[in-house]
Specification:
The chain contains four helices and nine strands. By secondary structure, the chain is α+β, with helices and mostly antiparallel strands. The strands form three sheets. A five-stranded mixed sheet has the order 3-4-7-5-6. It has a two-stranded antiparallel sheet with strand order 1-2. Helix 3 runs parallel beside helix 4. The longest helix has 19 residues. The protein starts with a strand and ends in a 13-residue tail after the last helix.
């Protein structure tokens, strides 16, 4: 969000995104108000728990930070083109993250439908290997199952909290 991005082509400006303070503001610039209103924003910060049998200083500050925008169930896409994953500010493709998101939406979206999602994960650099692929778009997590379960559970919880609640009018009936 703190960067400015401009693109010109054929003598005209295609876009000019000014620096902003919030990630939400950048999404508004790129995707517009209509889509932004259909997304649920969530933020979660979890302590990075130690591997079994190893010592962990609870004050070390090692954390996984998740900031995401995921679509409400009524927003459905026919392909995965609207899924964006970023790990430590780098756009990545990862089957673990894709699977976790799919699990979060299981029984919420029909088979063959996909959400819109922008997932931003920040973690200590030692927890993720970015040298898996020459283009640096594929990563390998040191604790894959923990990352998977964290993403799945946080997204599922946010979707459940954001779902619309039925409103019932209670009228006293005459006896």
């Amino acid at each position: 969000p703190e960067g400015r991005f401009a693109l010109s082509g054929a003598g005209s400006k295609v876009f000019d995104f000014q620096a902003v303070d919030l990630l939400r503001e950048r999404l508004f610039q790129v995707f517009g108000a209509d889509l932004l209103q259909q997304l649920v924003e969530l933020e979660e910060e979890l302590p990075l728990l130690p591997d079994s049998g190893s010592f962990h200083d609870p004050h070390s500050g090692d954390r996984i930070r998740l900031h995401a925008f995921v679509s409400k169930p009524q927003v459905q896409k026919s392909n995965r083109q609207s899924l964006y994953f970023f790990v430590n500010r780098r756009m990545v493709r990862d089957r673990i993250l894709m699977h976790a998101l799919g699990e979060a939406y299981r029984r919420i979206l029909p088979d063959g439908s996909f959400p819109v999602a922008l997932i931003f994960i920040e973690m200590p650099y030692g927890e993720v290997d970015v040298n898996v692929h020459p283009s640096k778009t594929e990563v390998r997590f040191r604790r894959q199952s923990m990352i998977h379960d964290c993403l799945r559970d946080v997204v599922r919880k946010a979707l459940m909290e954001a779902r619309s609640q039925a409103v019932f009018s209670v009228q006293p009936q005459g006896m």
